[in-house]
Structures are given as structure tokens and as C-alpha cells.
Design brief:
This protein has 15 helices and 16 strands. It is an alpha+beta fold. Strand 15 and strand 16 form a beta hairpin.
Length: 351
Amino acid sequence: MDVEKKAAIAKQVEYYFSDANLKQDKFFQDKMRADPEHYLPVEVLLKCNKLKNLTSDPSEVLEAIKDNAELEPRADGTGIRRKAPLPDLQERPAKRARTERSAPTKQEDGAEEQEPAEDAAPVADVPIDQVVVFSIEGIAGRNLRFAAVKEAFKAAMGEAAFVFVDHHDNKVHAEVYGVPDIHTLANKLAADKEFLIAHDSVTLGLVEGEAKEAVHKRVQQHQRTMTHGRGNVRDNKKRKMNDKKGRSSKGKAAPLNVGGQQFNSNEAVKLHLQKVLRECPDGKLLEGKNHSVLLEVLKHHERADEKTKDMKGFTAGPNPNFPETRCFFVVHNDDSKTDFSYVKCVERLQS
């Protein structure tokens, strides 16, 4: 093993055991705390994409960290631990980076959902033969975070890669472009038996033909919407600021009466319901003015009659498909629950 490779392996392993990583890495913490002596199996480390790109040999990992004063291998070479106590696990910050913030929320009625890389070149200008599309099996319906998917593909294919995540009809795809020899890399990834996204093992496949074209078209359409459909970014921000102040470009907007409460704008209604969603205990029925406001909002759903049939009330809780996000539910008389997008309903409110 040459010096450069050894240093790269050592640096990556050191990061895995650092306070910066372990304070937020529940997977590693759980694995280490499950061991009486807090060792992390080397085989677990070797499943991590960044380390897997450097080596698949446990002996090289052990060799790389043997002179590290803060880490020590198990006597039989099967695990590594840090000499310092494990740090307390901290919750990830509630506010995400811009690329994460708009995702993921469940899109109802089969609508597609994509999240573009923030610095992506216009995908409409990229020939389809320079793009690869992966199917991702074993992630839909679980804890799907677009940022984690992007991070995994960038680790495997290079930080220069542009990654778009497409979630459509309960299927998840990743479209990637912008790296040299992309098809060779893609074939290698698809041939591997295991690919990790945020420590979850998934199976990759390469999508070709009409299915590939369909994903590419959805990603193109989404980026056009993000770039053009919502107007100039500065004007959009200005309009939102005016909405928050209850003003339009022509002056003061008429107040909205929603469920017996006055709001200056649609944005004010949305902010109010966001606060209710955060503060409502899981499973508790909304009462009073909060119930009235949400009922009035739901009347603007395109399938309001269906959603409110045999309705007992509203509650809030984790989205069943995306547990990191919360959503409102209609609770029916038989105690079954139906989720819905209050954001879409608020957008249909008329001042």
C-alpha cells in the first residue's frame, strides 16, 4: 500500500470516529454502544461508500490507523474503537441547507417529486447519452432524504457530479452527469452487490430506453419550472416579503377570513399552520380555532368531499412514508387516517 493511499484511508477512518461525525451519526453510535467495549466492526466501515472507494481490504484499514494515537484496533483485528469516550448523540439541526429544505414532502395523487442539485448545469442542455439514470430499490417508503441520496452518489462518483433525485409513482431514481467516464463508473456501481445511502443498504440498477427518457424528461421539466416557472428569483423573494406584510405590488391586500380568523395573506395562513403542525402532539385531535382554520383550508382541496367523508377531526404526526417530516391527517370515524397537503390547499385560498 503506497503512502498516499494509506493517508487517504487514515483520514477517512479518523473522520468516522471524530466528534463531528459521531455527534450526529446514530447508526455508528448504535453499533458501537451495542459492543461492550465500543468497538466498531471493520466490515461495517468497509460498507461506507467513501472508504469502499479506497479499499475493500480490512488489513489495509488496520494498517492505515495503527500509528493513530486516538484509535485502537481490537486484538483480533475485527474492530476499531476510539480511546476517548463516545460523545453524546445530538439531533440534527431542524433547518437544513437550501438543497434539503424543499424536500422531502410526500406528493399526493402520484405527482412526481424531484430535487435538483443546487449548482447544477441546465439539464436541458445535457444530451441523454451523457446522463446515467439509476433505479434505487429498497428506499421508497422508508426514510428518504434527497440530500443523503446526493451525498452517496457524489461520494461514489466524485464531488463534481450533478445529481438529481426523481421520486415518481413510489419509485426512486437518481440521474447523474458531469463526471468523466461516467458509463464505466455507473456500470461498476450497478454491478456491486451493495450501495449505502446514509448507512442503509440499497440495490442499484441502470435504467435505459423509454424509462430513462421518462425520468430525464421529468427532471428537465422540474428544472425548467424551478428556473422559469416561478419567475425571477429576486422578484419571487420580493413578492413573498410583500405577502408576509399583507401587501401586493398594487398596495394592501384584503385580509383573509379563514375559519373565523383574520390573516393578512396566504403566507400568513401557511405560517400559522406550520406552527400548529410543529406544536400539535402526535395523535391529538385539533380543537377550537385550529380545527376551524384547517377545516376551512381543506375545503379548497380538489377532493375535499372524499377527504372529509366520515370525518371526526384532524391530527398531526410523522408522515408514514417520510418519518423525518410531519403532516396533517384527517381522522375518520373508524379511526383510520388520511394525510393531505395543506400547502396546496392554502395556495388555492382567495383573498
